[in-house]
Design a protein that fits this description.
By secondary structure, this protein is an alpha+beta fold. The chain has 3 domains: 3-120, no CATH class; 144-264, no CATH class; 280-444, no CATH class. The chain has 15 helices and 11 strands. The protein has helices spanning 12-22, 55-67, 76-82, 95-103, 150-160, 192-203, 213-220, 237-245, 280-309, 317-326, 334-354, 357-377, 383-396, 403-420, 422-438, and strands at residues 29-35, 43-49, 107-111, 118-120, 166-173, 179-186, 232-234, 249-253, 259-262, 440-441, 444-445. Strands 5-6-8-9-7 form a 5-stranded antiparallel β-sheet, sandwiched between helices. It has a 4-stranded antiparallel β-sheet with strand order 1-2-3-4, sandwiched between helices. Helix 9 (280-309) packs parallel to helix 14 (403-420) and helix 14 (403-420) packs antiparallel against helix 15.
Length: 485
């Protein structure tokens, strides 16, 4: 884009001509002339994009006041003060800010005889309501979710944290998209070292465009090749507010309902959205079930393959005879059979996810039943193997935040089991534990509050204490950041 077209002169007609030439190939660009009733008349030009503005706002706040003006023409600063009916109107901003606001739905106003533009806030592009996110539904609690509207998302956070210490710092990333990004934190609670690290990493990002929060996540996270997430994702404003109160930092990206939260540690992956909205007794039970589900989903297929391949003597005799009978006629090894069924299961799950909702669930259920039964009857797979893989797939759904980790670790442990049996599984688990122990998220150890010797009080780790026993000033970063409100 030629920025010189936005360096206006005192001649209104020349300004209109150069703007029309600049956007001659854009049919959404609109130039609107308006003239007052005075003699000589106040002449003004409005530049905006159709579909990006609120037409009623332009008509009532700009066009109508100017057209009814009966006195002598005024300079632009006087027009803003005496004529226009607006509450947000930057006057003669820098060219880069002028262009950014104009392309984002604001209207440029120029008057004849003055080269200084005014930028009127007239944004009015289509947006959806803050409905509950499909991926983060709760049994009880708030039903609002973030949308693609940037300022609306910040308002949802502000409404829950009505404190002057809540800070929003804006920046733009993307040489073409100029996407607005906001770093949100509570001053006095957020760790300043982490905050500076977040700002520094954002400054180092060089992309043409940022269309989603994951663009930033992949470039900002500590260990880019780890299957474990070191940045949090959420579409719920109540979760963001809770994490800000714990000393975390939120990163809001314009154009996406997904908000990043950092630092992100392992214990968060086993916490559900409504853990704090229902009974702490039920929460503690389900939280342990999630931990158990994660362990089973990555180890159960490997254990089954290890026992049948290397340690048949550990299987009870009657059970071993039953498994042997079911495997009669199956032409594949136990390992090959497990890998094949796992791949088929993931294909069905991906197909169910990508197809329209009306047929996605039916495809997953019917496809799983039909293919599983057909594979067993055709002797391509044994019934116990189908049961083990199905149970492993179901338990993976308990911890959706570790979806990538469960998929990769399941195959990794399966290979270890095929090579060394149970010893291979133990060796694989040791490697996984060593990897997790070395992970950090913006300088915070990934196993914070879990490892022995860490400074924590255990109020919200594997158990959630009831609210009457939980101290609000000792959550998450206690021991890392001693500054509290």
């Amino acid at each position: 884009m030629n920025l010189s077209a936005f360096r206006f002169t005192t001649n209104l007609d020349d300004n209109i001509k150069q703007m029309k030439e600049q956007f001659s190939h854009d049919n959404t660009f609109i130039c609107r002339m308006v003239q007052g009733r005075g003699s000589p008349a106040l002449r003004a030009a409005l530049f905006f994009f159709d579909g990006m503005v609120e037409s009623s706002n332009i008509n009532e706040s700009i066009i109508k006041p100017i057209s009814l003006w009966e006195e002598a023409p005024l300079p632009m600063d006087a027009v803003i003060d005496e004529v226009l009916h607006i509450d947000d109107c930057p006057f003669d901003p820098p060219v880069d800010k002028l262009v950014s606001a104009f392309l984002y739905g604001d209207t440029i106003v120029l008057v004849d005889g003055d080269s200084r533009p005014a930028v009127v806030n007239t944004k009015g592009f289509a947006k959806r309501g803050p409905d509950e996110p499909d991926n983060e539904k709760v049994l009880r609690g708030p039903r609002e979710g973030f949308t693609e509207a940037f300022m609306g998302n910040l308002a949802l956070i502000r409404r829950r944290l009505r404190t002057p210490d809540l800070c929003f710092e804006f920046s733009q990333i993307g040489s073409v998209s100029h996407t607005t990004v906001s770093v949100c934190y509570i001053n006095g609670i957020a760790d300043q070292t982490v905050l500076q690290a977040v700002k520094q990493r954002l400054k180092q990002i060089e992309l043409d465009a940022v269309l989603d929060a994951n663009y930033l996540s992949e470039l900002m996270r500590d260990d880019r090749f780890s299957p474990f997430p070191t940045t949090g994702f959420t579409e719920r404003p109540d979760i963001v507010a809770a994490k800000l109160l714990e000393g975390r930092i939120a990163i809001v990206v314009d154009g996406t309902p997904v908000v990043l939260t950092v630092p992100h540690i392992l214990q968060e992956t086993f916490q559900a959205n409504d853990d704090y909205y229902i009974s702490y007794l039920y929460t503690n039970l389900t939280r342990w079930l999630r931990v158990l589900g994660f362990v089973l989903t990555i180890t159960l297929p490997a254990i089954y393959v290890a026992l049948l391949t290397w340690h048949q003597e550990m299987i009870p005799t009657r059970l071993l005879f039953s498994i042997a009978a079911s495997r009669q006629g199956v032409p594949f090894t136990t390992f090959t059979e497990a890998v094949g069924i796992l791949i088929i299961f993931e294909i069905l799950k991906e197909a169910g996810t990508r197809t329209p909702e009306t047929i996605g669930q039916a495809l997953s259920i019917v496809g799983g039943l039909v293919l599983g039964q057909a594979a067993v009857e055709a002797r391509f797979a044994s019934a116990p193997m189908v049961i083990v893989i199905a149970f492993s797939g179901v338990t993976a759904l308990i911890v959706p935040k570790l979806r990538t980790a469960t998929l990769l670790l399941r195959f990794f442990l399966l290979i270890c089991a095929a090579i060394l049996g149970l010893y291979g599984i133990l060796l694989g688990l040791a490697c996984i534990l060593a990897h997790v122990c070395r992970l950090t998220s913006f300088g915070i150890p990934y196993l914070t509050n879990i490892l022995a010797g860490e400074k924590h009080n255990g109020q919200d780790v594997l158990f959630r204490f009831p609210w009457f026993a939980m101290k609000p000033d000792k959550r998450f970063l206690a021991g890392w950041n001693e500054v509290r409100r």
